[in-house]
Amino acid sequence: MYSFKNDYSEGAHPRILQALVDSNLEQEDGYGEDRFSQKAVELIKERLGRKDVDIHLLAGGTQTNLTTISAFLRPHEAAIAANSGHIFTHETGAIEATGHKVLSIETEDGKLTPLLVKTVLDYHTDEHMVKPKLVYISNSTEIGTIYKKEELRRLSEFCRERDLILYMDGARLGSALCSEENDIELCDIPSFVDAFYIGGTKNGSLMGEALVICREALKGDFRYHIKQKGGLLAKGRLLGIQFYELFRDNLFFDLAEHANKMSGLLAAELSKVNIQFLTQSPSNQIFPILPNEVITALQKNYGFHIWETVNTDHSAIRLVTSWATREEAVLAFIDDLKKLY
Amino acid sequence: MYSFKNDYSEGAHPRILQALVDSNLEQEDGYGEDRFSQKAVELIKERLGRKDVDIHLLAGGTQTNLTTISAFLRPHEAAIAANSGHIFTHETGAIEATGHKVLSIETEDGKLTPLLVKTVLDYHTDEHMVKPKLVYISNSTEIGTIYKKEELRRLSEFCRERDLILYMDGARLGSALCSEENDIELCDIPSFVDAFYIGGTKNGSLMGEALVICREALKGDFRYHIKQKGGLLAKGRLLGIQFYELFRDNLFFDLAEHANKMSGLLAAELSKVNIQFLTQSPSNQIFPILPNEVITALQKNYGFHIWETVNTDHSAIRLVTSWATREEAVLAFIDDLKKLY
Amino acid sequence: MYSFKNDYSEGAHPRILQALVDSNLEQEDGYGEDRFSQKAVELIKERLGRKDVDIHLLAGGTQTNLTTISAFLRPHEAAIAANSGHIFTHETGAIEATGHKVLSIETEDGKLTPLLVKTVLDYHTDEHMVKPKLVYISNSTEIGTIYKKEELRRLSEFCRERDLILYMDGARLGSALCSEENDIELCDIPSFVDAFYIGGTKNGSLMGEALVICREALKGDFRYHIKQKGGLLAKGRLLGIQFYELFRDNLFFDLAEHANKMSGLLAAELSKVNIQFLTQSPSNQIFPILPNEVITALQKNYGFHIWETVNTDHSAIRLVTSWATREEAVLAFIDDLKKLY
Amino acid sequence: MYSFKNDYSEGAHPRILQALVDSNLEQEDGYGEDRFSQKAVELIKERLGRKDVDIHLLAGGTQTNLTTISAFLRPHEAAIAANSGHIFTHETGAIEATGHKVLSIETEDGKLTPLLVKTVLDYHTDEHMVKPKLVYISNSTEIGTIYKKEELRRLSEFCRERDLILYMDGARLGSALCSEENDIELCDIPSFVDAFYIGGTKNGSLMGEALVICREALKGDFRYHIKQKGGLLAKGRLLGIQFYELFRDNLFFDLAEHANKMSGLLAAELSKVNIQFLTQSPSNQIFPILPNEVITALQKNYGFHIWETVNTDHSAIRLVTSWATREEAVLAFIDDLKKLY
Predict the structure, then answer these.
(1) Are residues A95 and A200 located together in one domain of the fold?
(2) Are both A144 and A273 inside the same structural domain?
(3) Is residue C270 within 8 Å of residue C319, measured between CB atoms?
(4) Which of B24, B233, B324 sits opposite A10 (nearest CB)?
(5) Are C90 and C223 contained in the same domain?
(6) What residue stretches are annotated with the Aromatic amino acid beta-eliminating lyase/threonine aldolase domain (chains A, B, C, D) (predicted)?
(7) Cβ burial, residue C340 (10 Å; 0-12/13-18/19+)
(8) Which parts of chain D register pLDDT below 50?
(9) How far apart are CA C113 and CA C147, in angstroms?
């Protein structure tokens, strides 16, 4: 049984484990004030070409989203998200639990545009309704699509015109940035968004997301929020060491590239036998539409999620690849699938 | 410079790191549904001699406290804590951020008694005040003291009579249970409290606390709360592997015993030169009272917190030992101190 | 200028003011423990034919909704509402501010059915999503429609089967119950829902809603929640006196009947000139679709809300009648409209 | 039986009721946008001699406190209050329910000073603790004492130096300002505090508090907060008419003066027979210490709260007078008491 269920089925890239082992008995200050965290933050700032951002290392995606959004918003302000957005559907109401409504927008491709956001703004006219204030996007999105630079630029301009905070969930930012279709560089992002995070958990770490706050007015007292929401790890070194290892050379990008290469291989081979996809995903999640009996047969040897019923005979499945996906497993899957077709 | 600042200055016990390395490429389900977490839970249940408890592995202490207390209480209900209690002073209002007041009680030794709790109950008479509902205790306490079995039994009985939830923060439970003065066994605890957690972070793990819910009525839907509060790690295996390693033999207790042995050695030697202590601590935190000039001199070579001003010339410092504290460092500290005295 | 903007443009029915004057200097206990509130509660229980319900008098609709829903739900549980539901769109995120997501359902007529609710339940499968727990309906709805007894019975049965709390917002319950199409009696409601409120503000009171809690398990400590959310008026008598006056004879129903008679007159006359309506409303809010130039002309002499753009030339307006609507004003409006047509 | 239990035992001053009657059938916009509310706001601004403040009319004290404090604070910030402060003990955790800790300070006289506040600031050193941000005071205090101008000035200066928000709960501001010992005028207050409210409920209204926001940065979007917390009355006119009546001449102050005159009479006569008081109160709440058997005897004909046990034989009771307190009742009480003495 080989799993394509997600990109967090294995532990961490071996270099990361080795870095943990090597530093294990060094005494460090707690709560992210260790030297590794500080060095990791410096490395990421260099990559971004920006000294004036604040960077915080947090344990996971939902933790990062709820801490950030609740820190940025006043009580009557709301977030806007695609209806496929992680905060809208898959975080058990974490944002609402901090007191804020999430306004959702129906989208085709999981991406927000100025026009879509404007519709929400136009609808919210007075104090009997929440005040839309933060625009939440994911790159890559929850359905594998990615933002092009021009799309991001236009959304960014719109948000600035309308005094909205633009926040990017980068749980799978590595895969987005290493996608063949991508034209955004990591160092472009701070000029477009007010805050974003660089996902480690789904790109080779045991855990960890690096939150980057770009807008000055949003930086204040942020460590209080991390602590209050339970995200300030006593052994912050655990995050620092991992991000240091990911960014001291090209490891972060190498791992994402491997994940994309594996999903690209899957997509290309499936296309050859005329399999259709639910979304046009250039990143590490793909959603092929298969006959239900083929799905049943594949389930004997492979793990994956059935994403959506397409018609009475067909469903879309989700295949996720990662830094750890073995090419032989991909080839075996393709072989097995072709035999069933 | 050697640090006695806390018990989370180093990484993890080497056996834990090795276990992470050994299991690294095995594919596991996410979110605590991996085989390691399941095995760890089974091992702890065996240690507790109880199959009917629910056990959840969480990332840190504040996260565990806020998730648990907010899950257990209705909106108008409050927690009761010693004024030295971690949730009252050192969690940045994490409990209040979930909507609940923390009622504090002045104590001598950091411990709650039926009489102290009764005072709070008697004061809260009607719906113009919060309803005290959960009693929060720490063992060992934040000032190093521990509960004796008889103390815990009486508090437990009182809470049951008054329909209060008794919750024990076990961030340093290992040290408490391995203290020479202790007469409680791990397997005794579920019969006394409604929920408690076994601290891993401060006893040899990279991170992780094992929450044990003993009262049936408090178990329902608990994973929803963990997810909502941002505590459900995608790679839950990281917690499972560590607790499995701590409890597959006696490692958890061995580590705590070492920590206690080191603090005991410190305390014994300091007593020999007639140094007084702020509290009578039989666990891994001790609070010697030293002349300020001695403190200043020690700070050149040792890290520790200055805890409290005692008088114009003296302050209490906090020395914390851990599984990783080296005996040579302790002896050197004692030597250096004696020279200064 | 005559206003059809809403059913709270005037003060209170004169009998209510007189009752306030008559009782003014009697000394009463505060916070709803006065004799008037107690008598009002008894009167309503008699009307309901139920001694075993709990009744609380609160100041307004949003206050009642947020207090009730937050008291009934645990942190991870969510409310379900029509997308036209007041709590979803017009309470500034009041429910979310207490920590709970509101899941919305697209509807044709503002009403929920078992099938619609089931769709939401089916979608929410595990702890990564909120747990739908409370079904919020309004009768009459925000777009003037009302529930028939059979519809309510079926929804009620479904909720019981699926362990959902059924809560009815009765801001305009008077108008619903006095509608010609209605077949529900006030005393039927407790057998169908777990809680509901009888709206006073929009039916002749200065303010006030009478919350009726029918399900035993939801009653406990409710006054704590009212106090905590700021709804426990020091001079609770203000609510008690008004509800006593509304229910000591048939006043509550007489007032609603007048409102309906006035909206019925409007609707009948508008239909005669072939004006279409956005919704088929048998209650005191109607939504005629008019040419935009007619709307502009009417605005010179009449106040009302423009509800929705229908096409480039037409919009729907909302006309609301109340206990205080004067028949002459209605006739004048009809005359003026016919002249414009 | 005559009640000295509180200052909200009766309805409203007759002039207020008459104003409600006179305006009853005028049609007005809802939600505080009626002409009466606007005129009331203008009148109060004139009294304050300040055009640049924002004034909002809210239904009650707890509602005002929770709406204001939650609107002003970010999630990690806390309020500071005397341990006798209403928000700390008698609002069922309303502030905590919005997510904020209330830090309490032990006081002799219910009043805060720069020194007392500084102690709290000094204790809160880093992000592991909440950040004290708002200083909550009551004038008169919950135990009847009042602030002198110099005290308020010094506290105000300290708060500005330390970037703290100073907020005054004026539930009984009328009584404070009309006290013989008072040297503050209503128009002085905006120069000292960032926000305060003028209490109507306890000074002749059926309900209602006028919140005055003085600091520019705290004004934004405040109506959203009122609506979200359930405090935006549909018939806002109910508040507007009452405050208009209170402030269109000297009624607000006349009523408070009467209340003070009655408590002064009580205090003077009790002093004559050498009765001691728990606090030196120059306002409309006094706390005489009486032998328990005297208290029991008085309870046959008079209502009041037993405030505190003083020793085995004596308790302090609370006597509250109001605009409605009849002088004959006061004299009768004094007579009866003297007979028992």
Answers:
(1) yes
(2) no
(3) no
(4) B24
(5) yes
(6) 25-285
(7) middle
(8) none
(9) 10
C92 touches chain A (CB under 8 A): yes
Q: How many CA atoms lie within 13 A of D70 on its CB side?
A: 33
C313 burial class (0-12, 13-18, 19+ CB within 10 angstroms)? exposed
Q: Judge if B235 and B331 occupy the same domain.
A: no
What CA–CA distances, in Å, run from C17 to B221, C175, C238, C241?
A: 50, 22, 10, 9
Pairwise CB contact (< 8 Å): A17 & B12: no
**What's the token pair of residue B289?**
């009272």
Which CATH number goes with the domain that contains D159?
A: 3.40.640.10
Please give the tally of structural domains in chain B.
2
Provide the CATH number for the domain around residue D285: 3.90.1150.10
Distance, in Å, from the CA atom of D154 to the CA atom of D145, rounded to the nearest integer, reads: 17
Q: How far is A243 from chain C (nearest CA, A)?
A: 27
Q: Which two tokens stand for residue B165?
A: 């939830």
Mean pLDDT, chain D, rounded, equals 97
- Averages of pLDDT over runs of 10 residues in chain A (341 residues) are 97 98 97 98 98 97 98 98 97 98 97 98 97 98 98 98 98 98 98 98 98 98 98 98 98 98 97 95 98 97 96 97 98 95 79
Q: Both A174 and A239 in a single domain?
A: yes
Say if residue C291 is exposed, middle or buried (CB neighbours under 10 Å; 0-12, 13-18, 19+). Answer: middle
Per-residue pLDDT band at B341 (split at 50, 70, 90): confident
Residue C341 has pLDDT above 90, yes or no: no
Residues of B in contact with A93 (CB under 8 A): 228
D96 and D231 housed in the same domain: yes
Quick check: C257 contacting D, CB < 8 Å? no
| Calpha distance A210→A55 (Å, rounded) | 7
Contact between chains at C228 and B75 (C-beta distance less than 8 A): yes
Per the structure, the complete domain to which residue A324 belongs is given by: 2-7+252-340
Query: In terms of domains, do D301 and D322 share one?
Result: yes
Q: Which of D195, D224, D250 is the last residue of a domain?
A: D250
- Determine whether A324 is exposed, middle or buried from the number of CB atoms within 10 Å of its CB (0-12, 13-18, 19+): buried
For C134-160, how does the pLDDT look when each residue is reduced to its tens digit (9 = 90+)?
A: 999 999 999 999 999 999 999 999 999
Helices (H), C178-250: 189-192, 222-228, 237-247
User: Largest Cα–Cα distance of chain A, in whole Å?
Assistant: 61
Asked whether A34 and A28 are in contact (CB, 8 A), the reply is yes
Residue located via tokens 């200064």: B340
Write out pLDDT tens, residues B173-215: 999 999 999 999 999 999 999 999 999 999 999 999 999 999 9
Residue A131's closest chain D neighbor by CA?
D224
Give contacts of B227 with chain C, Cβ < 8 Å.
76, 127-128
pLDDT in tens, D140-161: 999 999 999 999 999 999 999 9
Both structure tokens of A210: 């690096």
**What is the Cα–Cα distance from D205 to D208, expressed in whole angstroms?**
7
Contact D96 B101 (CB under 8 A): yes
Chain-centre distance for alpha carbon C185: 15
Burial of A304-313, coded b for 16+ CB within 10 Å and e otherwise, reads: beebeeeeee
Q: Do C310 and C236 fall into the same domain? A: no
Amino acid letter for position B71:
A
The span from the CA of D261 to the CA of D282, in Å, is 10
Amino acid at D169: D
Domain endpoint, select from D233, D250, D267: D250
